[in-house]
Specification:
about 400 residues, mainly beta, Neuraminidase, 5-stranded antiparallel β-sheet, 1 helix, 26 strands, globular
Length: about 400
């Protein structure tokens, strides 16, 4: 199938998408074990969800939305699902810089009860201009402090975040980051991006940086504490080949070089979570460049920004589907249980949501509540954030 043929294919969106009752939690028509809803939003594009269980029993979900990624009207939105509620409420807008595209929100319930919101802010489609802002909430997201700059860009790079800090066994906080490196020529394309962690011994007042060695092309580091001790980091690959893995001891300062796992990656985000029973859950797209029928010049083609033909290792345009949930019982070394959350062609060669041509299921986030249930939020066709609730062992009915 050619790119042109894909671009004119009819959408196969859930008929509930955009319906008046779309925010209501309901069992899926063909699977009563999972509840689903679409988070309401006032904008046409919605992407990069981050969902967490809050201390008061609510769920919090943040994402970015606007005209399209890279446009300065893109802002951070946040919604709280109250305990026992049957529908997600209208979100609150938590940012509004008219000169920057504000993206990749991260929610972190700190041990002292403060809820942190971190997000990026970049100029247009230039991730190498990004820095990280912070807001704090003392009441589980009902009210927020003013925004402040937390991590500034450096000479020749911007700073990006995608996943929340992890509280280490020592009580220190570990925040995974990646640097978006400005190339010697032309605009940022992601070819030279690499990962690092920041560690705070004083509850976020000061930080020390530790690079992940040989991590060029490995970004969106998702860190989990393993039940047997030590840390596991899983990465998105700019090469659109495989999910990569790196390991460290409990201190989190010395990481192994990332190596490919047996799980595919399409240069799109993943997220892992340490479950209460010691297993690790992972949500990812089971596709890669090997499945691609077309390649775009870069992420921000739809903004009309000049970009050279693709020549570096970063691959853009691999399908963002299917979206799959996997479980590991051996610290992420094998993933014997896997099941599709969403299936489709995953067409993502456009960043434009107004024309509704994008059909990706991507950028998953997951959290677990004390009752053991998993709560998953992800991008649905770039038109909405979809929410799914299910038990971890739901995945065992699937096959690799």
């Amino acid at each position: 199938m050619t790119t042109a043929e894909q671009d004119t294919m009819p959408t196969e969106a859930d008929p509930r998408l955009g319906a008046p009752d779309a925010a209501m939690l309901r069992p899926r028509a063909d699977d009563a074990e999972r509840l689903e809803a679409y988070l309401p939003s006032p904008v046409v594009q919605n992407h990069s969800a981050n969902i967490v269980a809050l201390a008061d029993g609510a769920l919090g979900c943040a994402w970015f939305g606007g005209t399209q990624e890279g446009v300065a009207d893109v802002s951070i939105y946040f919604s709280r699902l109250e305990p026992g509620a049957t529908a997600w409420p209208a979100p609150r807008k938590l940012s509004g810089d008219a000169s920057r595209s504000e993206q990749n929100p991260v929610l972190f319930p700190a041990p002292d009860g403060t809820l942190w919101l971190l997000h990026t802010a970049q100029q247009g489609g230039h991730q190498d201009t990004a820095f990280i802002r912070r807001r704090l909430s003392r009441d589980n997201g009902k009210t927020w402090s003013d925004a402040e700059s937390m991590i500034e860009p450096g000479p020749g790079y911007g700073v990006f975040v995608r996943h929340p800090p992890v509280v280490l066994a020592s009580g220190a906080w570990l925040l995974p980051l990646y640097r978006c490196v400005t190339p010697a020529e032309g605009p940022w394309m992601g070819d030279a991006d690499f990962s690092l962690v920041r560690i705070s011994e004083d509850s976020g007042r000061s930080w020390q940086e530790y690079p992940v060695p040989d991590s060029t092309g490995c970004v969106h580091m998702s860190v989990v504490r393993q039940a047997a001790g030590g840390l596991l980091g899983l990465f998105r690959s700019r090469r659109a080949d495989f999910v990569h893995a790196s390991r460290a001891d409990d201190a989190g300062r010395d990481w192994s070089a990332p190596v490919p796992t047996g799980l595919p990656n399409n240069n799109a985000s993943i997220q892992a979570l340490a479950l209460a029973d010691g297993r690790i859950a992972l949500v990812f797209n089971a596709s890669s460049a090997a499945d691609a029928t077309g390649r775009r010049s870069g992420l921000y083609d739809d903004l009309g920004e000049a970009a050279p033909p693709p020549s570096g290792p970063a691959f853009w345009g691999a399908p963002r589907a299917p979206l799959k949930l996997a479980l590991s019982a051996d610290g992420g070394r094998t993933w014997p249980w896997r099941r599709n959350l969403e299936v489709g062609d995953g067409y993502c060669l456009t960043n434009n949501s107004k024309d509704r041509r994008n059909r990706e299921f991507s950028y998953p986030s997951l959290t677990q509540t004390p009752d053991g249930m998993l709560h998953i939020a992800f991008t649905y066709f770039r038109q909405a954030i979809k929410y799914v609730r299910l038990a971890p062992d739901w995945v065992k009915e699937g096959t690799p």
